[in-house]
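Mods, move this if it's the wrong board.
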Amino acid sequence: KAAPYWLDEPQNLILAPGEDGRLVCRANGNPNLVNFNLKFNLKSALCFEASPPNPSREVAGDTIVFRDTQIGSSAVYQCNASNEHGYLLANAFVSVLDVPPRILAPRNQLIRVIQNNRTRLDCPFFGSPIPTLRWFKNGQGNTLDGGNYKAHENGSLEMNMARKEDQGIYTCVATNILGKAEAQVRLEVKDPTRIVRGPEDQVVKRGSMPRLHCRIKHDPTLKLTVTWLKDDAPLYIGNRMKKEDDGLTIYGVAEKDQGDYTCIASTELDKDSAKAYLTVLERPDRPRDLELTDLAERSVRLTWIPGDDNNSPITDYIVQFEEDRFQPGTWHNHSRYPGSVNSAVLSLSPYVNYQFRVIAVNDVGSSLPSVPSERYQTNGARPEINPTGVQGAGTQKNNMEITWTPLNATQAYGPNLRYIVRWRRRDPRGSWYNETVKTPRHVVWNTPIYVPYEIKVQAENDFGRAPEPDTVIGYSGEDYPKAAPTDVRIRVLNSTAVALTWTRVHLDTIQGQLKEYRAYFWRDSSLLKNLWVSKKRQYVSFPGDRNRGIVSRLFPYSNYKLEMVVTNGRGDGPRSEVKEFPTPEGVPSSPRYLRIRQPNLESINLEWDHPEHPNGVLTGYNLRYQAFNGSKTGRTLVENFSPNQTRFTLQRTDPISRYRFFLRARTQVGEGETIVEESPALLNE
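Not the wrong board. Structure tokens:
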């Protein structure tokens, strides 16, 4: 059983004058409908049976057919259906209107679309009779429909793929018998936003400065917005990050920076994105849970649990130890093992109270040390080695200081470590002296000047002595040499160098180890009048036992004084007799300056100063010059001047070219160093 229900509920109908139409009212129910009727014009509530005949309206069952409707035929039609279980009632408005076309959309719309995207131009319209709508582009051509265009009944024009050539002004025209209406829509096709170089997956070390690229190409007429996401959430750009036009730089990257980074480039019309994963390599976590097993007299097994490698494989483990007798609290490297192991047998020394810790190493760096292991004490024994680096040398002329490198905590092997120091003159008949000390130093006093000694240093503890030590040769203190070189002779080689010869001192007078002969010299005066000179003392060393040498870098045309000494580890011996010698003339240094002035286009004025070091009697100046213009140069011209002349005026033959000048002073030995200057460029060049 069922109350009435609609199969086709009547709908409002709008008709134009002279137009045909249909109004349907269809219902059903169970049992069958016992009352089904249609009424119109609610004001009079007339049934069709009671209404006067109307040729423009015909009832055919559940349908009313309208033909050639006219103004004034508007009415409200009511449909009622009922049975014993209920009823239905619906009203439908039939309006006969006479309306010219109207465009319902805003005027002069602007539609922007990304190239190659689908788009739609809307042109809603109204009119009675229903207008015909057509689209035109740029006011020309045929109606747009077909191909890339599809016109819909509701007035919309759809484009499957917007191209650059589709840009323009589109006009929609609605037409019926009463007139027409039109509207324009401007379409702009924009370049798509594309990330041409996006971020790439990176593996970086902690503290480095990775850069995530995001280079974007977009339509310049659209406003671009670039945002970054980290792990799909907005990225906070703090002090360690710098957002730039083409990427993101992270300064001092840390473990918390690891994750997915997404660059999103968006405009008001479209967007593009690119993603990359940043892996941060950290130093490994510290090893943990150290355990000592297999305890033996000279070995122990150490086992540990590795910490997290933090994305960079562990390459090595460093085992360190600390002992509490010699250097408590100081950790020393014991051994190194590959990163693939977590257990090692450690070699031990006697009489050490060991404590161990482990450090993990990867390509980024070293972990923090592990928590130390428990302590393990080994038994004592006599030393197996003696001190190294034994040497004897005098610090004063009547002593010899014996020093050595002491044994460390793993070499002592027992309590009360001490050193037996033995020495004697280097003479098989000499007697040995000895002294037992605990510090790595012993001074022997009242020794002859610079004589050789045989020295031994042996380690000893409460368990016994080390093996017999090797013998080392040392020397007592030096004294200043007692004699000076004699028969010093000087031979002039050139204006800046002399050759020396001398008679060497007797070795007995050196009172130490001969280091070098040394020549002290100074410039006493210049052979030119009224020329001030520096008398600063200088020296040249001649290492070893030799009797000749060369003193160079002297000033020409000068008076020099020279004296010689022999030198040992203590210092200089007495000075030899002072020798005087002159140096011959040389070539002068360059003039101090060369100034160029151009008072006009016809002449060039030159002015210069004398050389700082004439190195002899000046005999004149030589000036060479040539015109040049770009890469082209003229022939070289030469002028010679007297030693007192310091000015020259050149009459130009070429008002356009510049000039290059080469000026040198000369003595009777020859021309000296050159100063080069160029005339300035003319303002009208």
